[in-house]
Amino acid sequence: MHVARNRRTYLAKSGEQRVYESVLVRRTYRDGSKVRHETLANLSALPAGAVSAIEATLKGERLVPAGQAVTITASVPHGHVAAVHAMAARLGLPALLGPAGRQRDLALALVISRVVRPASKLSTLTWWAGTTLGGDLGAADASTDDIYAAMDWLEHRQDAIEAELARRHLGPEPNPSRMALFDLSSSWLEGSRCPLAARGYSRDGKKGKLQIEYGLLTGPEGRPVAVRVFPGSTGDPAAFTAIADVVRDKFGLAQMVMVGDRGMITSARIQALNQREDGTQRPDADAYGWITALRAPAIRKLMADDGPLQLSLFDQQDLAEITSPDFPGERLVACRNPALAADRARTRDELLAATEKLLAPLIARVQAGRLTGAGPIGVEVGKVISRYKTGKHFAVTITDTTLAVQRRQDQIDAEAALDGFYVLRTPVPAHEMDAAAVVTAYKNLKYAGRDFRHIKSDDLGLRPVFHRLEERVKAHVLICMLACYLTWHLRRTLAPLTFTDQDPPAPANPVAPARRSAAAQAKASYQHDPAGQPYRSFHGLLEHLATLTRNQVRFTGTEVAVPMLTEPTSAQRQAFELIGTAIPLTLK
């Protein structure tokens, strides 16, 4: 028996041509030399689904209820790690890490994991088994010893990795301005056995904790290139000298312009920057330039006694180039930011008022005789006056029975005179970099600060550090730097899907605060693109990509499970289109 479909065409009385189809169940048999057909049933009135089911049954197919046709034996998050892995492949990161092998696969898995889900190494090891990253890179069955061995392998390759990144992004062709940014930060450690652990100025505000220092070297756009780890007591100037030696000696780059903050590029470091070990000066072909800022006492000296820095310079403009015999052979670019001046004045007034509010009950206790003795009173005053770091603006007089606090108005006025002012210094000649370009270069240090936020808290969770061995701490920081390198490119590439400003406008006035583009403001206002698709944060987009799963599907009557991806959303498709690759079924 079989299902036969007969189609015939006829002309209606209206002249319209119509097609009539009959669906019949027929038995076909041979009668001598003839083939005959016997109609057993007319199925024309049945729904198409019922006809298809009868036809499939007559062909010998086995029908099962729709809910039992397939079994999904496993469903694992895939889209987020696939997107990050695709970007890593586009950047050539696997080859950058080293020769192919298990160590490289584990190191790459650690870097990708730091972007997608920053956590401790032991937590990451457990997480690998629940994503396609672990299975595809052979990391799902890794042990803690395997992870530590991969970290040690990666740390030994740090110089080669960073030298290649420097060639890509700091060399003369990709970086014609020959500019590099450098900044220093710190993070605390849990434990006390690490040789790098020391007490120092904590940029995390973690008092009493041992810490490490690490300096980040970036290109002029803030793209991470290298990182160096120092003992926790290392000062900014020493770190700057170390990274300058790395750039010159290990990366082989000449005539660079190093940009650092005012506490890093000091006069002593400037003098030593272009000196050889024998004390002679390096030739101009190998000399380094620099851009930094003056400290407040130096600015105050330039303003005193009719010095070169006077308010009248800023009547018509926000920046002016001046010279001073105290800085021979250097250009000084003075800037005044009115918005910054107003903000600092408001902040100072608020902190002074807040300190006086805290001191008032303390003064009342002394006057009432509930707190006596110069020592105890001084201890209590110290606790209060140091809270907002305003002690330098108050004159405090203490006896055994009295407490008098008065503002030092002359000191407050002297500090207020510097509000909004900063002065940059550089030896780079004006024909190579004008005053506006000097200001822009120095303000680009904000990119290094942004990278530190991504590394430490926003994206990559570097802190706190749990490793004890020095090489493991360095490997951990290197992994975070490489993850920051990946994140830097991902944020730019996926900007059309996120709230990231794709094309921030270049300010006409380099001193003025940066502003978002109209397109970025529209994103924040409307929350959806013209097609109705929601904009997301960078992490929100990664979370959405994680809903693209890879499923192991087993069809009824078979024993083999077939890998299949969930049908991607429009945002998921667009994310991979922006990266420049099709959605992969597997990572390798």
What does this structure look like?
The chain has 588 residues and is α+β, with helices and mostly antiparallel strands. It has 4 domains: 2-63, no CATH class; 73-156 and 494-504 and 517-588, no CATH class; 159-337 and 420-490, Transposase Inhibitor Protein From Tn5, Chain A, domain 1 (Alpha-Beta Complex), CATH 3.90.350; 339-416. Helix content is 40%, strand content 19%. It is built from 20 helices and 16 strands. The strands form 4 sheets. The chain has an 8-stranded mixed β-sheet with strand order 7-6-5-8-9-14-11-10, sandwiched between helices. Strands 1-2-3 form a 3-stranded antiparallel β-sheet. Strand 1 and strand 2 form a beta hairpin. Helix 4 crosses helix 7 and helix 4 packs across helix 17 (470-493). The model has no long low-confidence stretch (mean pLDDT 91).
Determine the fraction of residues in helical runs and give it as a percent range. 40-55%
* Number of DSSP helical runs: 20
Strand percentage lies at: 15-25%
Give the CATH level 1 class of the largest domain. Alpha Beta
CATH architecture of the largest domain: Alpha-Beta Complex
Characteristics:
8-stranded mixed beta sheet, 3-stranded antiparallel beta sheet, Transposase Inhibitor Protein From Tn5, Chain A, domain 1, single chain, 588 residues, 20 helices, alpha+beta
